[in-house]
């Protein structure tokens, strides 16, 4: 799972990773476990991060051969819960 925190820090799991190293790190993980096109990459971003930045990172991941990129949301957020029917 790729996480982008409120200040733009990027993590794979709990390990911080520089944006420049993100794709190579994911490719290394995929090669160790099989085909990158078969690996699913989940992306979670803090709501404070600009949508454009998130989409740039998702585009970089996709352009590297990862075909299964999905967004994760946290429905435990009390503000989100208040808006749900």
Model description:
- The chain has 85 residues and is of the alpha/beta class.
- It is 40% helix and 21% strand.
- Strands 3-2-1-4-5 form a five-stranded mixed beta sheet, with helices on one face.
- The longest helix is centred in the first third of the chain and has 15 residues.
Name its key features.
85 residues; 3 helices; single chain; 5-stranded mixed β-sheet; alpha/beta
Terminal Cα separation, in Å? 29 Å
Mean pLDDT: 85
Q: Structural class per helix/strand content?
A: alpha/beta
Q: Helix fraction?
A: 40-55%
Which assembly state applies to the chains in this document? single chain
Strand count: 5
Count of helices?
3
Whole-angstrom Rg: 14 Å
Across the major sheet, the strand order is 3-2-1-4-5
List the helices and strands in order: EEEHEHEH
Which outline best applies? globular
Q: Enumerate the spans where pLDDT stays under 50 for 5 or more consecutive residues.
A: none
Main pleated-sheet profile: 5 strands, mixed
Estimate what percentage of residues fall within beta strands: 15-25%
How are the elements arranged and paired?
Elements lengths: L1 E3 L5 E3 L2 E2 L2 H15 L6 E6 L5 H13 L4 E4 L6 H6 L2
